[in-house]
Design a protein that fits this description.
Blueprint lengths: L3 H11 L8 H8 L16 H18 L4 H30 L5 H42 L21 H19 L4 H6 L1
Length: 196
């Protein structure tokens, strides 16, 4: 058991070791255990991811004719889910690239991480679909009870004229773009490749 002198010394020392008190220090401390950013509070990992988030949010806002704060919140959650799903895909690619075949321990570790990132990707794709369904339902009910009138559009960021893409659409578009690049690299146009 500690003596009274040790207890007093511990209390004096505890006064010198406190956690950060500034906003910047608290924000930095909140990221101490962040490993991959696929769970917890959403924060874009870098400028490119922030730009992708902003562009996705603008497309969703423009596609769904968003006019209320609740709709903006749902659109934001949809964009977050899409960015996290893409982040999980990138981590899956890293797992596959970094695996050392022939080394059982490395392979088992990569398989475990790959399984984790696949689960996170599926979770975020389901979240995207859930928020999209809730947004469509909310807009449908709003339009049913709304009288035709002039209204102002609430946009969290500058609106874009293109519709919000679904995850399946993005995957198809990415495949189609890669296929077109391969065809053009061979010196043909996509129309010529369909004729052959």
């Amino acid at each position: 058991m500690a003596t009274q002198a040790q207890i007093q010394a511990n209390r004096r020392n505890a006064q010198h070791s406190t956690c950060p008190t500034t906003q910047a220090g608290l924000a930095a401390m909140s990221q101490n255990r962040t490993t991959h950013g696929l769970a917890g509070e959403f924060k874009p990992a870098n400028d490119q991811e922030y730009d992708a988030y902003r562009d996705t949010l603008n497309k969703i806002v423009a596609a769904h004719d968003i006019t209320t704060e609740h709709e903006v919140e749902l659109a934001s959650k949809m964009a977050e889910a899409m960015i996290r799903s893409n982040r999980a895909l990138a981590y899956q690619d890293q797992c596959i690239e970094n695996v050392e075949f022939g080394d059982e321990e490395s392979f088992a570790r990569a398989q475990k991480q790959l399984d984790l990132f696949i689960r996170y990707q599926a979770q975020h794709e389901r979240s995207y679909q859930r928020y999209a369904a809730e947004l469509r339902k909310f807009i449908s009910e709003k339009n049913r009870h709304r009288k035709p009138a002039n209204r102002s559009i609430i946009s969290p960021l500058s609106p874009s004229s293109t519709p919000a893409p679904s995850i399946k659409f993005l995957k198809r578009a990415n495949f189609s773009a890669r296929r077109t690049q391969k065809i053009r690299a061979k010196g043909r146009t996509p129309a010529q490749s369909r004729l052959n």
